[in-house]
Amino acid sequence: MKTVTLDQVKSCLQQLPIHEGDGLLVHSALQFLGKPDPGPEIFFKALMNGIGQTGTLVVPTFNFDFCKGEPFNRAETPSDGMGVFAELVRRHPQACRTAHPMQSIAVIGHHHKDLCRRDTPGAFDDGSAFERMLELDFKLLLLGAPVQSASIVHYVEQRHPVPYRYWKSFPGIIVEGKSSREAEYRMFVRDEAIQPELVLAPIEEVLREEELWQEQPLNYGRIAVCSLLDFVSVTARLLRKDPWALILNPPRGEES
Fold this sequence. Notes:
256 residues, alpha/beta, two-stranded parallel sheet, 8 helices
């Protein structure tokens, strides 16, 4: 496997519209960018170098064990399936984490207090950390990850509301230090009777056509960036035209 160095990552980021003071929501799949030399912390260093002390770095730290009855401890419950980089950020001494037990984010930087104090029943609700990132004009950054990883799509699905999801509440236990409490949170979950296969490639295609998407290749993958607001706007447009626009297998009679 090819290696990737701090200087290579910095060089890629310098060719993208990433500036001091930016807020970044980062989805990662580092395996496509090469073997980091000396380790995955080079990606963290490169990003923090790009956004500076006034910037904010956010990663999703989702874990759905709460749905299965497991207690959630935002200080200790690991992210699940979010990648090495998400865990690196979550475990950083300067990181804080939002309270949602299934769809949390970890935050480092200027807006960490603002984002981490938000505790809404649904992670994408009005007043949520995800909505606040839109208000603050954050950018979506795909660090080797495909557009399929972009969790902000759920913000749009919730507001339109798509016919292949429905609201479901999950009661459980929240652990805070040595104490615990009962709580109930919700998600806009997939309708398993439909078995929808979500595909986000159409969003990237429109963003490219409208020159709202930029990327740089790196080894086996790419680093890509766009405005979160642009991503949401394009997604909303597609769903207004066809609520099944992002579903590969719409029910018969719903094909566009």
